[in-house]
Design goal:
The protein is built from twelve helices and no strands. The protein is an all-alpha fold and 283 residues long. It has one domain: MetI-like fold (Orthogonal Bundle), CATH 1.10.3720.10. InterPro entries: MetI-like, MetI-like_sf.
């Protein structure tokens, strides 16, 4: 057979010379600058608050004048801040526990029995994520006032559970849907009952998602201010509401010190949540 002539191939120019760095594209530089500006824009208010909390002057001012930690001591000695902080912690813990119990059961039922009813319930349970908080606060005000629970801890707990439980349902539902359903069927076939298979097979498989949802519920309840403004009373006030009312009548850096403590507290919780979510994904 006649041999066909092969065309000479040109040497590829993809390889870079040793010791020579590839040039950065203009688009990558613009993208990096844009991301940096966005991050600075987001962090700027937080940095301003943190810097204002260590000023030595007697009023809020940026840039701060001098350095002093006296306002953190003033915040710790203020009984109103301490009491409202204790109330927020108790309210957030109660919201987290109830939201986890209700959210895990709701997510399991939606995933276990799919259909039109399950889709409707999923949209209903997740609706607080899409509706304005002012609408919820006004609705809770009318309902709780009608039953005599306005300005009480139990009424605020009910409202916070409704606001925070969608975060638990959404996180746990994602864990259930990514889990192999045959594991539960295998446990049932080996003689485990519904409760035993749920607590020994199903629940450990979504532990990371449940933990993330629980921390989400705690943070949402602890930081909730819009809905809680409609529900506070003479004997019940959370820390975000106390901060909101404090800045209306005072201009000293005590509120900046309290806000800085809240920033650190929430940052630690978010870091723990991300760690738990990462551990759950590795499992």
């Amino acid at each position: 057979m006649p041999q066909t002539d092969q065309l000479p191939t040109r040497p590829t120019e993809a390889k870079t010379r040793p010791g020579r760095k590839p040039r950065l594209r203009l688009g990558s530089v613009i993208f990096a600058i844009a991301v940096t500006l966005i991050v600075l824009f987001v962090l700027a208010p937080l940095l301003v608050v943190a810097a204002s909390s260590v000023t030595s002057s007697g009023y809020l001012k940026f840039p701060p004048q001098g350095f002093s930690l006296q306002w953190f001591g003033a915040a710790a000695e203020n009984s109103k801040f301490v009491e409202s902080f204790s109330t927020s912690i108790r309210l957030a813990l109660g919201t987290m526990i109830i939201s986890v119990v209700c959210g895990v059961l709701a997510a399991y039922a939606i995933n276990r029995y799919p259909g039109r009813i399950a889709n409707f319930l999923e949209q209903l349970f997740l609706s607080p994520l899409m509706l304005p908080a002012v609408v919820f606060g006004l609705g809770f005000l009318f309902v709780l006032s009608a039953f005599g629970y306005r300005g009480s801890f139990s009424g605020a707990l009910l409202a916070h559970v409704i606001v925070a439980s969608p975060f638990v349902i959404r996180s746990t539902l994602a864990g259930f849907r990514s889990m192999d359903s045959r594991l539960e069927e295998a446990a049932r076939s080996l003689g485990a009952g519904p409760l035993r298979s749920f607590f020994t097979v199903v629940l450990p498989g979504v532990a990371g998602s449940v933990s993330s949802g629980a921390i989400f519920a705690f943070v949402i309840s602890f930081d909730e201010a819009v809905v809680t403004l409609f529900l506070t009373g003479p004997g019940f006030e959370t820390l975000p509401v106390t901060i909101f009312t404090y800045v209306q009548y005072s201009n000293d850096p005590t509120v900046a010190a309290v806000s800085t403590v809240l920033l650190i507290f929430c940052a630690v919780l978010v870091a723990v949540m991300m760690r738990l979510g990462k551990d759950g994904d590795e499992r």
